[in-house]
Amino acid sequence: MISNSEYSEYNFKSMTDFNATNQTDLIRGETPVDIVDTCLQLCKQYLSGVWTQQTVDTIEVKRITGGLTNHMYCCRIKSGGEESPQTAVPREVAIRLYGRKNLITDGIDGERLSDIIIGLMVSHNGLGPRVYGMFNGGQILAYYKHRHFGLADQNRPQLVLQVFEGLARIHAMDVPVKREHWFFTTAYNWYNIIENDTKTQTLVNELNLNALKTHSLKAELNFVKQLVDKCDSPLVFCHNDFRSVNIMVLEDSDCSADDNSDERVLFCDYESSSYGYRGHDLGYIINEWGRSLWDVQKPHIFPLDSTLIPLIEIYVNECRRVLGNRFTESEINSVRHILIEMKIFSLVCMMSGVLILLKNDPDAGDALDMDKNLTMHIKKLTAQKFDCICKVMKSFGEYQ
């Protein structure tokens, strides 16, 4: 029997409590005891310059969040003279150490060649962090002081412009990786794992999760697929995790909070990137428009068309600038068509989140590295989110 007492360690009264916890508890795995020496040796090998003079006592290594699978560390020289501009050797970098890849979009488990290709290309195009070094187990990147693109930033026109122009440039990239749709093959595999997971099924019954007891997860997934097939979203290069946590507003400029005209946006965490449905990225970012990623218990209300259309117009105008006038000659690239894509793929992204969290088993080899009690509590909250999705789907009859 599973009882609520098993979740006492994470007895959140609301998602506000969960949001406060996730900043620390969701850092993945243990920090290696020799991490300072590991980072030092990497910086000596790939950065050279002033780093060759450092020891474990003259550098500082701090663990920072690195997504659901990787470890990320800020490594900096504690003190000393500045490097000359001619050498351009940074004194502070981010070191990303790979964990197990959670979302496999190319069908090859453990494959990192695409990460190298994509990381170098987005860096070169100014769409991702500068790359200082790449090695078998990770990357050395520029470290940026930043904040995540938040609710307040959605009302700052210059930042919004950068977000949607940047997304247009990502989608316009010509990247030498596999060009095929992967999402629904993966989604049905996730569904099969959930269906055969006795722990999740027991959780549904013991906690009386009505949404999962009264709705067929597979039927809802089938419905979403029918919507996607009919909307004919083009195959483009996608970020695939285009959420606020992966949009950095850089804080290195001297602008004040009231005058943010010089602030710059930069995207990060391209680990899941691949070719896929154009609507995927649009759905992810719009799911957070006017709300927080963690607002699971808050009723999901889509932004008004009057809010979405100006965002789409920014995207379309930048696509036309990059790809030429031929882009807007096709109905599939019209504002109306992309508006439909946004709404349909907001459901796709919500369904994706439900499947990923419900399938996660801390005892499985490919699981997210997360505390077992926290995993089960998140599954409970995810069931509430699924109930919200089922209600939202009823409003999509116009697209059937």
TrEMBL record:
SUPFAM superfamilies hit by this protein: Protein kinase-like (PK-like)
GO function term, MF aspect, one: ethanolamine kinase activity
InterPro entries: Kinase-like_dom_sf
Cellular-component GO terms for this entry: cytoplasm
Entry keywords, A to Z: Lipid biosynthesis, Lipid metabolism, Phospholipid biosynthesis, Phospholipid metabolism
Any one GO BP annotation for this protein: phosphatidylethanolamine biosynthetic process
Record family assignment: Belongs to the choline/ethanolamine kinase family.
Listed name of the protein: Choline/ethanolamine kinase
Native source species: Medioppia subpectinata
